[in-house]
TrEMBL record, chain A:
Organism for this UniProt entry: Alsobacter soli
Listed name of the protein: Urea ABC transporter permease subunit UrtB
Membrane topology, as annotated: Multi-pass membrane protein
Keyword Cell membrane: yes
GO term, biological process aspect, one: amino acid transport
TrEMBL record, chain B:
Alphabetized Pfam families for the sequence: ABC_tran (PF00005)
PROSITE patterns, A to Z: ABC_TRANSPORTER_2 (PS50893)
Organism: Alsobacter soli
Keywords (A to Z) from UniProt: ATP-binding, Nucleotide-binding, Transport
GO molecular function terms noted in the UniProt entry: ATP binding; ATP hydrolysis activity
Record protein name field: Urea ABC transporter ATP-binding protein UrtD
Positions of the ABC transporter domain: 14-254
GO cellular component: plasma membrane
UniProtKB/TrEMBL annotation, chain C:
Keyword Cell membrane: yes
Name of the protein in its database record: Urea ABC transporter permease subunit UrtC
Keywords noted in UniProt: Cell membrane, Membrane, Transmembrane, Transmembrane helix
Gene name linked to the record: urtC
Subcellular location: Cell membrane
Organism classification: Bacteria, Pseudomonadati, Pseudomonadota, Alphaproteobacteria, Hyphomicrobiales
Pfam families: BPD_transp_2 (PF02653)
Cell membrane found in the keyword field: yes
NCBIfam families in the cross-refs: urea_trans_UrtC (TIGR03408)
Amino acid sequence: MRFARLFLALLGLALAMLAPPAARAADLDAAFARIATENFNEIEAAIGDLAATGNDKAATALQAMTDGALVYAPATKGVFIKKADGSFLDARTGVAPAEAPFATKPVRVNNRIRRALEAALGSLTLLAPDPAKRLAAAEAVFKSRDVAALPALDVALAKESDAKVKRVMTQARAAAILAKPDATDAEKVAAIDVVAERGDQDALSLFANLRANGAPIVKMAAETAAGAIERRLAVLSSVQNVWYGLSLGSVLLLAAIGLAITFGVMGIINMAHGEMVMLGAYTTFVVQELLRTRFPGLFDWSLAIALPLAFLVSGAVGVLLERSVIRFLYGRPLETLLATWGVSLILQQAVRSAFGANNREVGAPSFMAGSFDFMGLQITYGRLWIVVFCAAVFAALLFVLKATSFGLKMRAVTQNRRMAACMGIRTPWVDSLTFGLGSGIAGIAGVALSQIDNVSPNLGQSYIVDSFMVVVFGGVGNLWGTLVAALSLGIANKFLEPFAGAVLGKILLLVFIILFIQKRPRGLFALKGRAVEA
Amino acid sequence: MSSVTNPELTQSILYLDGVSVSFDGFRALNSLSMVIGHGEMRAIIGPNGAGKTTMMDVITGKTRPDEGDVLFDGKVDLTALDEASIAELGIGRKFQKPTVFESHTVDDNILLAMKGPRSAGSSLFGWRNRVRDDEKDQVLETVGLKDHRRRLAADLSHGQKQWLEIGMLLAQDPKLLLVDEPVAGMTDAETEQTAELLAAIAKTHAVVVVEHDMHFVRALGCKVTCLHEGSVLAEGAIDQVSTNDRVVEVYLGR
Amino acid sequence: MILSKLLTELDWRGRVFLLALAAAAVIVPVLNLAIPEGSALNVPTYAVSLLGKYLCYALLAVALDLVWGYCGILSLGHGAFFALGGYAMGMYLMRQIGTRGVYANPILPDFMVFLNWKELPLTWWGFQSFPYAMLMALVVPGLLAFVFGWFAFRSRVTGVYLSIITQAMTYALLLAFFRNDMGFGGNNGLTDFKDILGFNIQAQATRVALYVATVIALALGYLVARAMVTSSYGKVLIAIRDAESRARFLGYRVERYKLVAFTASACMAGVAGALYVPQVGIINPSEFAAANSIEAVIWVAVGGRGTLVGAALGAVLVNWAKTWLTGAFPEIWLYGLGALFIVVTLYLPKGIVGALSEWSARRQDRLASSAAAEAGVGPQPAGAE
């Protein structure tokens, strides 16, 4: 009976659409008058009438009724919405009545009424003027697979003009048909086709039941559709993995790229490289603290301000380190390793003394927050910016090396120190600046890493092994090799994770690199020849 | 290797045929062919980058050629062996830069080079302690380091280190010695002494000497091969080669 | 016989070292057991164990010196071999707990019961037997070093590359041992030991016995290492350190020489770890941390690499300083350690023992100009060639 009544209501609704507005206003008044009663049958009919008006006052009233806030005054048949603070609104007009109603009673609700309310509200939102609301309503029906919503959907579909909303409504309708016990097989097969268009996890879960115990023909259709969706989802998850891998690879590259200069180009084993990254991260922290207290409006600019400062701080520490320690150890790589390890301990302890041993909070500017959907991929702005930033740093570094006079001098010194000295290049000066450049880039990396990792004195330690692996894997002295190594390790890591788990995946990669170095001790893109071994 | 019966091959101690090596597109050796006879002494000259050291690397197993045959004693394919096996076969090599065991005494340097078992296992149980003093003395005598035998190799002069390294080669008693720039950085007197030393060694061994110093090459008085861009440019007696127009153009200069 | 030959062949440094160890093996237990507590001369039991810990580190340092000082292999992963030996001992001690554990399971250690495991994993089989556990403390690190070295040395991974991959090795093991499903106690590791060979591990006498065992192990380790480096094998090893390719072109299979040293060194480190665990009462994955391995390198550098005695001395000195400084000025310790790394590499490249013997050699030179410099303490093994 409920269906019939609802159908009638919707029919009425459809007719109401055709009727002039004045008539509809009259319908609304009549429906409100009808609801002010003790009789459940009358109330149910009134709900149908209200839904039929398609009016948003009706929607508000019905919503209030589900919340138990719709009251009526038996004396005047006036219907009101009782607000939380005890004041009233006239349900017909939506404004406060001139004088407070007297001796009001709540409109009665039982289970039958509640069901009618839900259906009515669903159909009302399906007809809401705002397309976003209609879309949400259609999605809700799709998820709930509510057979009861079918008539309302049909009506809404007939009236719908927005293509996107219409598509979702069609899918919702198909989902409801699939759930309908008395739908024919043909109807179901057609519905499967419609639902399959979505191609997402929701569609797949909708088919699960049909694949298990549908009629043969339905079963087959569901199988086919589900297969297609599964393939699509598999591709999507691969793409997702590649994307996560790229962003992880970018992080690795950022951490390693400074090392690619100090270790790859200059041959200095700088175990304090991770601490240069850490200094960059703490510079970001300090900048943000200052902005927070002095210029809160500039907070979104904090990273942009921190970048040059981090470069300068880490670069300066790098130059200092080169001048005071490393230059005495050129040609003694193992000693350099030990001395710079000592430096890393000192830097860690210094930061611990200055900022404490705990993690420091570094905030994300607003443009880093949120995410967007790209062809079914959820892409967070944070990740996107890191990838973009990493590419920019890499490009800038290439530019410095290939297109500036400093880069030229630097390459000259690393290739033939004595010759470069004879050409009038001040090699010690170039050494310091090159080391400073590598350290400065590590500092820049620290700004980016402060966004995704805990800023603590141990920040650098967690990157040092990875960074060396990347540089060695890519081939020492080859920036492009470092790029390829970082990205491929990042992607490999993300593909291993689902099978092996994060930790085991990482172990497997480490073992792989250890074995790889055995095979090609000079990395992926090693320089060959006699000079290398000298 | 179709030419197993090739007399040139069977009579050679070292036979290189069509050997090519490239490093990242740069052809260090370009179809190099050369034959060294038993007991022969040969001087190799050529400009920098002509492939002289790469040729030595190929012979001693440090670098694998991309193509070509390298045969030792007319039968052993050197391209399939590693440095240690090649050394055991009887090829000794002196590097361009004197390379000796700096923290060992002169005596120990010679001792380590002397013929004998080389395995790690046997060394643990002290084969090297059975000192063959007479042989060692003879080598030290030959290279003129007898008075310095107790000194650390690190304390020797540059020329003495070169001689020590040659002495180590002698102690190894190879059939073929490859000597890379033995007189670089030596005084004239030392150079002369070295030429005499090598000439004496050449009486009983095949020797290949790479050298830039034309006076020294002349003093050796042996057949000369000039390399250029990884292959042989000219070969013959010193006078013949040094007047060759191409050699003059690319190497000696006018 | 070999031992007596070794003793007669020892240089003065070795004799002093062994005498000092012998004295330490006798005097410390006497001062602990015979002198009443509260007396000024009494060595408290905790100090005996602390000293035992230092000597374990000293054995690790001797092992490291064998490969670094004499063969030029800077291993940044020796802590892994040490920890593996420690885990072998820890597993034996866990099995000895038996029903005295919290869950009173006669077979399974507590953490396995906690993880709902039903039976003992294969890796734990046999560890109730002390000889087997001790064999594993030798074999497992040795085997790992053998396999690792086999690949690395054959492919001629040298210098810093080797250092970096040894570091990666210990890092990978660190991550692995943190995992609960590895079956080694996850990040809590193995602890709450009760007894060893039937003796209460907390008892004073047991602790003293463990200490004496450590002194003996260190002496033996030193003698073995010393025998290796003074033999012909050692001469070749030093030759490889100074000029690897010269050695190769003389016909030495460099990779095998290195492999022998690396494996022997790892076994020695394993023994050190096995003795360490009962004296500190715990082994957990943090022992695999790269920082530990690098710290061990600085002990060797401080004492003087390529001297063996110096390595042991450096380990004891640095750790004693660490105990003292972390107690007195906790903030200062890392600054001090960091500075130590820098100062030693810049100003004291031969370490304490190396500098001392250089000084005494110079003095002897002045006394008798004919006296030759002592062999064995070489100059920096610069990457010759």
